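Work Package 3 (structural annotation) set out to generate three-dimensional models for the target panel prioritized at the project kickoff. During this period the team completed the workflow that converts sequence records into discrete structure tokens, so that structures can be stored uniformly alongside our sequence database. As a representative example, we reproduce one entry of 145 residues exactly as it appears in the project archive.
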Amino acid sequence: MSTVSKIMSKNPKTVGPGLSIVGAAKKMRTARVGSLLVKKGKQLVGIVTDTDIVRRAVAAGKPLGKLTVEKIMTRPLCTIEGSEPVDDAQEMMSDLGVRHLGVTKGGEIVGVVSVRDVMRFYKRYAQSSIVMPEQGYSEPKISQD
């Protein structure tokens, strides 16, 4: 089984907690990412995601130009060690109800893994596991209770 570090996005994008929601959304669009790590000085204080923006700002009717990342970010950032199996990341996301995990190596954040990264991994894994009919494919046996 592959590890989280092999499927994560490296060099995650960061923003300060005082950035407006509009500024964060523009940075996500430009970087083509669904999350930004939030740093205050050198300290990681949370994560803001596209879901945070939609649920905690847009749907709540908040003033997007004035509302800051700090007000809607998720904290603390849930993390997983990069050497852990992808299955563990998927299980952790499911258990915690999150779509992004910070990936650590020796306690330092080195990347971010998202639900999309996990889905891509499973898609490639499933496609590589398919047995073609000319290679001896047999129908599954179905039993009735």
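The first helix runs from residue 4 to 7.
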